[in-house]
């Protein structure tokens, strides 16, 4: 009898060892919070690891994009806050690139940007100075914006890297009602090359089109998202009472006064044009965070979106741990003499 108890004690010890090894093998790809870590003053254990997410909002800032830009402004802080409420709380940096067009069509600027930063207020301050103006012809400097966002931002090579491309016009040279630069970007950039650059850097691009996007633009937006592992979203719009909408969204009331200055504000109905951009961006970012091991409470899924399958729709396969455990017990029982 003592021999039997000894054998089962040994089994339990070995099983706990296998379980620990399995958990170690299945640990998500996360990174140490090394910016705040300094081990020079003490012999201390490393702090808890946290996933890293870098996200760049790449935005067409020409005249037709007023309500989309406003949507990013009012939702960006809330989105970041909600994403960081996961367990473990991810480290999240935000950057912004805005584009318009080349000088013959747009004389104010071609590109503006603020680098990736943990300080969301800095990104918001940058956005507050961005107004939807100009643009000229229908196509815009999309390829230039992609080139800047993909190649010239301070990406962390360890992070999950995302771009939200938000616009309502296709790149030059793609046959989209071209009246200028019909041969493409005068700087030589093109979106097909930038797709390859994004894939080489493991950057996923989520493309979001506004109401003015034509069929050429939609085709290109879909291609960019598909080829980089992102997702395409065509915005839906609804006119809502500005005070009620901002209260329900939990947005700082200071934005109400700003919204009432915008061109789409209707005095008679006290309403503005709202869209689904904030909801889509939050859903996508939470889905990405979950892929690298962040967990969220069920209320985060109240929008009805299947976060687990939002990006890949992959089928969950049988765990390697189950197979290893079966082999383990088979080998153990083969070595127990009294079992035969």
Separate helix tally: 10
Q: How much helix, percentage-wise, in residues?
A: 25-40%
Mean pLDDT: 79
Please write the string of helix (H) and strand (E) elements: HEEEHEEHHEHEHEEHHEHH
Major β-sheet strand ordering: 5-4-3-6-7-8
Uncertain residue segments: 18-42, 301-340
Strand content: 15-25%
Number of strands: 10
| Topology-level CATH name of the domain at 49-236 and 276-298 | Rossmann fold
Query: Over the alpha carbons, how many angstroms does the gyration radius reach?
Result: 25 Å
The first-level CATH class of the domain at 49-236 and 276-298 is given as: Alpha Beta
CATH superfamily of the domain at 49-236 and 276-298: von Willebrand factor, type A domain
> Assembly state here?
single chain
Distance between the termini: 16 Å
Q: Could you say what the CATH architecture of the domain at 49-236 and 276-298 is?
A: 3-Layer(aba) Sandwich
Largest sheet: 6 strands, mixed
Shape: globular
> Which structural category do the helix and sheet elements fall into?
alpha/beta
